[in-house]
Specification:
6-stranded mixed beta sheet
Length: about 525
């Protein structure tokens, strides 16, 4: 191994950490430059090999600033363009959000180097740090980020690998496990550069190749089986302006557009509309518009799944819902709400301070996680509304009973940004993890029909009124991820932690020279 670090200048280290973080989002959609999924973490790991805990905290934090500053810049679009906040206020709130998220990587750097230092008595300290400590802590903190303060598992590293040779690990270990394998690959590449021995370099390269070959082999396994007959599906993308969502005068056009587009799809078994396709309460249109729609759907033996808000007229609580209209009427209420978008934390304090906090219908109630499955086209459905599908451990609550997945989303909030592409990549991961086909209808794109391997069968054009058509085959059975969720990865992280504690406690004492 190289004895001295190649980079010793403090400002150069910090600049490289920021650059590596800013480059990592390019490994995700819409760019999908996969080498960066290895190179960016490898560079950060290298900077930590000879850093102090304080230096690692700062470089990790700068890495996080770059990662989220580029990767979730679309938050600004939602706050400014559709939340009606000023440029300065939207920029400030976005920067505050990014600065908070970057803390995870600052903490990661600090802990990684503290553990690395605790292993200083071992001759293979760097090997242990790169292959055990750094990847395990990274994934552990991704997992924490996935639930802390309701969770934000966006830009988790595993999602970048949906189309790579490693994708076969997803049905086994989920996106967290896939991210861990990716980080092992990054560590192996860095070790190849650090070692001087050609024999060791070759051995590490063979392990790197073997990881990918095994992943590709696992991808050939079919974990689930077809159920019943294939279904013809149509996804309706209305492409109506987000600014008209709450405009009562625009409601008639919205109702008419979705009815007319659906009227051309009666030869489909299943028609899906996006989240809040109808921006009025269910009870306002129940007796006329929806009753007529249900009558026509039954006549043509078609089911429609559409998004609209539903109010409990006794409690006055209202829900962001998907409604099944046709042969098997039913409703699904969204269970995992988005803070500030669908409800306002500390509402009594924040309401009225900023226009973004006072958007119409921003006090939704959460649905019961144990509610019955939605039924559509004769099949039980794992339904999710928009952001819910980023939580794999919550999606599998509806499995293995569900034979297909439906997601309705309103991506119009984020305009022409990275968000719709990143979100589709996450949704595809859910299909791969569960071995279920996915129908994903969005307001203005990207709508997509995805098979049980996470591959796109058909997709819409963004920012156009569009009907996406295709055939899916519902499936039954369980992948390992459906059965065990994230527990195998968490157990693996726990075992690594126990092993490191044991190594620290029994580490050899270096004799004085």
């Amino acid at each position: 191994m190289a004895a001295e670090p190649l980079l010793s200048q403090r400002h150069a280290r910090h600049g490289l950490a920021l650059l590596a973080g800013a480059a990592l989002p390019l490994a995700f959609e819409p760019f999908a430059f996969l080498p960066l999924a290895y190179l960016a973490p490898a560079l950060l790991f290298y900077l930590w090999l000879d850093a102090t805990p304080r230096q690692a905290l700062l470089s990790g934090y700068l890495f996080g600033l770059g990662l989220f500053g580029v990767g979730v810049s679309w938050v600004y679009v939602a706050i400014h363009e559709f939340g009606y906040a000023s440029v300065l206020l939207a920029a400030f709130l976005t920067a505050l959000f990014v600065a908070f998220l970057a803390l995870y990587y600052g903490l990661l750097g600090y802990l990684a180097v503290r553990v690395r230092n605790a292993l200083s008595g071992y001759p293979h300290q760097r090997l242990l740090s790169l292959l055990l400590v750094f990847p395990a802590l990274w994934i552990a903190l991704e997992w924490v980020r996935g639930w802390f303060l309701t969770g934000f598992p966006w830009l988790n590293l595993g999602y970048s690998q949906i189309d790579s040779g490693l994708a076969g690990y997803a049905p086994l270990l989920g996106s967290y496990g896939l991210g861990w394998i990716t980080l092992l690959g990054a560590a192996l590449l860095l070790l190849i550069l650090l070692y001087r021995s050609r024999r060791k370099q070759l051995g590490l390269l063979l392990v790197f190749v073997a990881l990918h070959l095994l992943g590709y082999g696992l991808l050939q396994i079919t974990w689930t089986q077809p159920q019943g007959q294939p279904l013809r599906a149509s996804l309706i993308q209305g492409n109506l302006p987000q600014a008209t969502k709450w405009d009562p005068q625009a409601l008639a056009k919205r109702l008419s557009l979705y009815r007319e587009l659906t009227g051309q799809e009666w030869d489909s078994d299943l028609v899906v509309w996006p989240e809040n396709a109808l921006s009025t309460f269910y009870h306002n249109i129940e007796d006329d518009y929806l009753a007529e729609l249900q009558q026509r759907a039954r006549k043509h033996n078609t089911d429609i799944v559409l998004g609209l808000p539903v109010m409990d007229r006794q409690s006055r609580a209202y829900y962001n819902s998907l409604l099944s209209v046709g042969r098997s009427p039913g409703v699904y209420h969204k269970t995992h709400l988005v803070p500030f978008g669908e409800y306002v934390p500390l509402e009594s304090l924040l309401r009225g301070m900023i226009a973004f906090f006072d958007l119409p219908m921003s006090s939704f109630s959460a649905g019961d996680p144990g509610q019955p499955l939605l039924q559509a086209a004769g099949h039980p459905v794992a339904a999710t509304v928009c952001y819910e599908d980023v939580f794999g451990e919550e999606v599998i609550r509806q499995l293995p009973e569900a034979t297909l997945m439906i997601n309705g989303s309103n991506n119009a909030w984020y305009g022409d940004s990275f968000a719709p592409h990143q979100h589709l990549q996450i949704a595809r991961m859910r299909a791969l993890e569960t071995g279920r086909p996915l129908l994903r209808a969005t307001t203005n794109g990207i709508s997509a029909i995805v098979d049980h391997k996470g591959r796109m069968i058909a997709r819409s054009v963004q920012f156009e009124t569009h009907v996406t058509r295709g055939t899916i085959h519902p499936r039954q059975g369980s992948t390992p991820y459906i059965r065990f969720g994230n527990y195998p990865v968490l157990l693996l992280l726990l075992l690594i932690g126990v092993a490191l504690v044991w190594l620290v406690r029994i580490q050899p004492v270096t004799p004085p020279e």
